Amino acid sequence: MTNKHRFVHLSDIHFGQERHGTYFTHEDVREQLLRDCRTQSSELGPASGILITGDTAFSGKKGEYDRAGEWLDRLTEASGCPQVAVSVIPGNHDIDLSRINYMGGVAHEKLRAADAWQVGGVLGRVKNFV
Q: In CATH, what number does 7-99 get?
């Protein structure tokens, strides 16, 4: 008998991206995803884990994470996944840029302007200021 692992892999959920109270813009997709997870879980078995690879929030604000947390609770239930098996890797939208100090802002600007091959060098110089 072989063990099978099933994962729900999401990226770029962007809670908070909605503007002017138009939460329905993404809610219909999120609700469909919950329905799909329920179906898959009942047909194939529960998910072993949920992986979120970047951009849970849109601008890193607390309210965005509050909403995301409530929805992720529903997703773990729908997929049959234990809540402790949710792994999140932050993305560029998961940072509240209004809370970054001056040096953090300088580092952010340098990193955004750098080509991929330059990033290591920029990070090496930035760590000397931290």
A: 3.60.21.40
